Amino acid sequence: MAERRKRISLCMIVKNEEKHLPGCLDSVQGIAEEIIIVDTGSTDGTIAIAERYGAVVIRSGWERDFAKARNLGVERASGDWILFLDADEQLDAATKSQLLDYARHDELSALLLQIRNQIGPEHDQGSTIHPVLRMFRNDPAHRFEGRIHEQISFSILRKNPSARFHLTDVVIHHYGYRTQVVAEKNKLQRNMELLELALAEEPDNTFHRYNIGVEYLRNNRAAEALEAFRIARRSDGFAQLSYAHLVLKYESLSLQLLGRWEEAAAAAREGSEVFPDYTDLWHYIALCSASTGRFLAALEAAEKALEIGAAAARYHTEDGMGTFRTAYLQGRIYEALHDEQGVIQAYMTTLRFKPSLLPPLFRLCKYFRTAGRASELAAVMARRISCPDEAAMLKLAGVMVASGCPDSAIAYLEWQAELYKEPSLRSSLAAHAIAVREGDYGRLPFAGILSEEEAEDTLSAAVHWRGRAEYFLERAQQQKKRSAREQAIQNVRLLLPGYEGW
């Protein structure tokens, strides 16, 4: 008789999650045989939704203690394993079945899953990635600890110091830190209040100190964040902490937000000596070095980041570090140096990493336009970018038009029309070229986005940052009295890749 797979119980705590809960529970179908939900006071349809999915619902008052609420559910779970999620999280359809295989391994005590925190409204608009313990063996000794950012690992290791934690490739998509969701739930204020309470109870707790630093960053309180991270860094046994690499990264980020670029570069370099394979730190070295005019050092650091590639699974990282985001930063640096071949190569590398990205296409168009070389743009695009179908060609032509280069779009479409032998494709491309020549842009993507000021703003939620940066970028390029080095520093500094809307 085939061995029955180990049973997995899903344990959750929720409150007023009718909008997100169905997506979460749909994602665990076929994985969790039991669902235990602790509701801390919902007044919407959350409980009805949970019961519709067959969940056991435990009604409980909110006592400002996440660990206590989670343990109420764990105590009722009957599965061999416990998986815990929040309502605004979903198991990734492509990787979730791996949990069933891992549940058969008796030597494992807990599993770390890869959390992808989605930032923008769409998947392509950026995410951070980090491993988090989210599944563990059901044992009476295994209980959560911590009023906020509750942890299960301490009790597991207390029961079995040699417990084996396995890092998996299973992905959880987390949507709770999208701007709209954060605003709706007032998460920042809630987290800050609980962390301040937890820190008052345990003033020497390094984990609380680190987490309050993160919340300070989210609240745009960079100076207080910096102090928190530096206190955490001075704690005993700091280097052995699982989040030590993040403390070092966020120390540099805090300094960047304060405009202390040289100190930020130094902090990132110190971090890279401790974690030499942590891509994000090398990317930060490149960014900070460029922002102080040390362009050779910046390009060397960017090359190092690209050589390492995406950070290893044990690190918290941002999507694109060591790949498209770093290559894009290289392009910005080469722009500042007026290195045409470097600009083209860097942005083409960016597109090889992620062909769907629009910012590098717009930057290429803008670079040729502001350099007075828009007439060469069509040839460069045709030679260097392979478009698999007509839709991709029209998208590229639309980018040219939206960037203020309609003549380039016409030349590109006519070029492609002559290149392809298939009659209907040739006819369609030629018709689009004629329409653009006559001033009809309605058939192209980004139609109607014609002004130079508006050309890129439709691509990102960060409209303010794009507009502000582009205004000063143009002004810096036009001010002949400033030295080339001063202009270059200004050009790199003003539009950081983090504001591209990824």
Automatic annotation (TrEMBL):
Residues 9-131 form the Glycosyltransferase 2-like domain. It comes from the Bacteria. InterPro entries: Glyco_trans_2-like, Nucleotide-diphossugar_trans, TPR-like_helical_dom_sf, TPR_rpt. This is Glycosyltransferase 2-like domain-containing protein. It comes from Paenibacillus glycanilyticus. The lineage of its organism: Bacteria, Bacillati, Bacillota, Bacilli, Bacillales.
